[in-house]
């Protein structure tokens, strides 16, 4: 087989890699997109979509069990585990096939089905024996679940988010190791589907929440749905075909264990040492956040591979930035990054936006345990915390754990992108009764602290939270 040359080689055909190849080609470069499987994106196959399908089933079960609040009697609610998982896989496969179909739209010769490793700063060796000489290389190899050795020894009893969706039926009991985003989302979903769930984490923080008040609300809500064991060191073993977890002098057995201890970047097979890049103790190069360039080299690293902002929309943005800069190398151009924005799909959702406030920030708080629309819907739990810069009250960040946070989070992120202030938002119309209306108290807190004119003072008196 003939060796290959191109302007830009992209390693990895996930969300970030597809965006990088597309943007490089758009800017006139000859490109190669190198991937061993072309199986589809992490989001479609083992991430965003299958997890949300499981969460949707859990939501339906939870709502069906709680209709008595409204005087609606549904009788006993049963969950058909095989049917839940069959629908999940059917829809998951449909999403993934749509991504795979997009590979057919690539120009002839762009897709290269092979595994690549570096043999120099801009040269690659493929596992089929060919070599690639490129003007620049974009690394978009994604990430994979980390399974520490005590759990790896359990074989099929240990699940990850790459394997849990392939179960034929729901387990009766499940230990979840890791209280990060993946572990917490799947733990709550399984609990609402009738699985007895215990979540373990060596740390004392769930889902990386930065705000103590929001974390207290999250922890309180989750403790009502599962057993939480934070700040412990769980020790797994196999016992009579089940998983035994020992911690703090206690032990319990479970049908299966979900290992959600992180997804490190897929870099071990790339032979990055051949590039001459300075690597840290984890074998990772330094990556500039505004260019995605590794040092001053013609190598760029994007998406989950750089572990900086491991969410889909950021991966797409990073791929686009790196694809353009790979074409322009060495004349790379820094790009302004968007306001950081993450959603954890617990119920209610957990949202973190923008900056963690410093001592000079002005903070507004909205309590959703007594908010009008949340109470009407029987979802009155949690709170929202908004952060603004002095002296003008410009919004710079927010932490929310409350109903509708995934939608309100978008509105707040867009407002921050536009440089809007708390006063600007209070000037907008708020319909009654809505969840958005609950933010008015937090916005007024900020305006009162700056201080600024507070629109809406003429509003008629309403009960707290309405």
Automatic annotation (TrEMBL):
The active site is at residue 432. InterPro entries: FAD/NAD-bd_sf, FAD/NAD-binding_dom, FAD/NAD-linked_Rdtase_dimer_sf, Pyr_nuc-diS_OxRdtase, Pyr_nucl-diS_OxRdtase_dimer. Its cofactor is FAD. Residues 7-318 form the FAD/NAD(P)-binding domain. GO terms for molecular function: dihydrolipoyl dehydrogenase (NADH) activity; flavin adenine dinucleotide binding; NAD(P)H dehydrogenase (quinone) activity. Binds 1 FAD per subunit. Keywords: FAD, Flavoprotein, NAD, Nucleotide-binding, Oxidoreductase. It is an enzyme of class 1 (oxidoreductase). NAD(+) binds at residues 178-185, 262. Its EC number is 1.8.1.4. SUPFAM superfamilies: FAD/NAD(P)-binding domain, FAD/NAD-linked reductases, dimerisation (C-terminal) domain. The keyword Hydrolase does not apply. It holds the Pfam family Pyr_redox_2. FAD binds at residues 52, 141-143, 304. Residues 361-441 form the Pyridine nucleotide-disulphide oxidoreductase dimerisation domain. This is Dihydrolipoamide dehydrogenase. It comes from Sagittula marina.
